[in-house]
Amino acid sequence: MKKILLVISLLILCVASYSQNSGFPQNPTTGAVNINQTNIGSITARKGISGGTYRDTIQANSIQYVKSKSFNIIHTTSDNNTWYRSSDTLRWNLFATTSSNCGGTRLINGSITWSGTSYIFNASELDYGIICGIYHSDTATLTVSPSDPTYDRIDIFFADTSGQVGIITGTPSPTPQKPAVDVLSQIEVSFVYVPAGSVTPPQVATIIYNENIEWATASNISGINFAYPTNPYDGTVSTLVPLMTAPFDFLSYQNGSVLNINNYQYLKLY
Description:
The chain has 2 helices and 21 strands.
């Protein structure tokens, strides 16, 4: 784990773990970056329904190519349902039922969040449905266009059926509105309010951990190392957490004062 940021915004708290973030939609207002998503578990599905058709998930598990994660989406004839595989490959999750045979347009897993620098945003791996297909996009860095000198605007972050993520720049206006995505090929993942003349989003990032000098750390886990020098995400150290086996194992970061969680939008872990 490396560099933990608390991002101050409006009344939203989202907890993220290993780039899995969970958020709640809200109307765009000045001072807010909306993380509009629902996290129902990380998956490794790729573009399209590619796993073939089987009698049931038991039969699919018996096929070596499916078991090797070559295929992550299957259709079962016993119930006429469509399933996607969990990231740990231990279970199949229902994507579409026999009544609709279509999962609809929705974000299954992933997020796009502010990097803490300028108007640069980080997209995690995304898994999402668009109409009756399921798609995947890889991690990406997205840079919002410079703000308008006179009027505010709202920009959209999207993912599409080609497995790409991008930005639709809104129109500056005294009453800015979100631009629309192409519903046949795109899904809105998030949006950002861009005030006139601004060089960063109207947010403040607080670093909890980066070089092990920010917040006080504590743990009862044997062998934990809060200053592990090997392969840090950023800077010179990271936190090495050995296997946690005891039911009350913990690690903590404390700053010595009480924080109002209503002032924070999300917790971001690297």
